Structure formats: C-alpha cells, structure tokens
Amino acid sequence: MAAVINKIGYEFLECISLNEHELMKYEPLAGSYAVVRFDAKYLICFNTWREQWELPAGGRNDGETAKECAIRELFEETAQVVHDMDFKGLLKVRKPDGAIKYNPIYFADLEYIAPFFCKVAHYAKGER
Predict the structure, then answer these.
(1) Could you give the number of structural domains in the chain?
(2) Cα–Cα separations (whole angstroms), residue 41 to 13, 18, 45
(3) Over 70: is that where the pLDDT of 118 sits?
(4) ∠ CA 38-11-52 to the nearest 5 degrees?
(5) What's the mean pLDDT in 20-28?
C-alpha cells in the first residue's frame, strides 16, 4: 500500500480498532478527530491556515477527555452541537520528525446542520 502523507508531512500509518477504555495504553495521545455524517454526507471544514480541507479536529485542553475534545472542536470549527459521540478507534500517525502520535476518532450522526459563519483570521504565510 502506498504511503498517505499530507502536505505538511504527517504520514498515516494505520487505524487501530479498540475499546475506548483502552485509550490510555497509547502514548502520546494527541488531539481528537470529529467525524460527523448528515444526509449520507460527511462534514469537513477548510483550514485557512494550512489551506486544505480537513475533518474537525484539535488538541485537548488541560483536564479534557478525548471525547470532550472532539465535541468541543466540532463546535469551534463548524458550530455543530452534539452531546455525545461514539468512539471508533485511533489514528496512528508519524510526524515529520519521525515521532509517532495517536489521535482518537469519534463519530456522530447529525439530524440537521446548523448554520455556520466562519471568522477568518488573516495571517501572512509562516505567521501564527
């Protein structure tokens, strides 16, 4: 199988199927992904900083669980409100420096899509 590497050098290695209570066996546990489906379609958002389409995702805040992170990131990036998400597995990724990280993946079906108006921050290339 050909390697899947995004444009900033992160390489997808595998998707690990496990139970949510086994998460802490994997280190480092990085930010969570929120995969949502509405009307047989999947929601993605455009990251203006990286200039690419992505699943809603981001790093955990102090004291936040992986699930709470996915729910918060989904809201912050798309304005979609969910109260629960199903754990689906871990994404194992090799960073450009060779280090391995694990990203929890959560899923929810939406009954409707809330309106979303993006606040665009303008950064010069390389800033942020």
Answers:
(1) 1
(2) 25, 25, 13
(3) no
(4) 50
(5) 94
